[in-house]
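Narrative of activities, Objective 1.

The group set out to show that a structural description can be obtained from nothing but a protein's sequence at a throughput compatible with the screening campaign. Below is one input-output pair from the validation batch, recorded exactly as produced.
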Amino acid sequence: MPTPKMYVLVRLDLSETYRIVQGSHAVCNYALQYYDQFKQWNNETILYLGVRNLVALREWNLKLAKTDKAYSLWREPDLDHQETAIACYDDGKIFEGLRMA
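Output recorded for this entry:
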């Protein structure tokens, strides 16, 4: 079984700098929601993966909601609370096929 990592899905229609900030918000939100799993991660490997746009991120949110995976969806107040990033501590199988952001 692969070692779990922190996977952060960010929208590729946002600037590179904005992706980093939004992904960081998602990770911090994950820590607040799932502290025990966050501690298991222990600040080890983190991977930023890109999704095309808002619609694609919403599709990932729906896909993850159908699983038992702990994940955190971040909504950015400065963008009218649009979804901008998702953080998930996982073995990564579900994210195969996504490329680095």
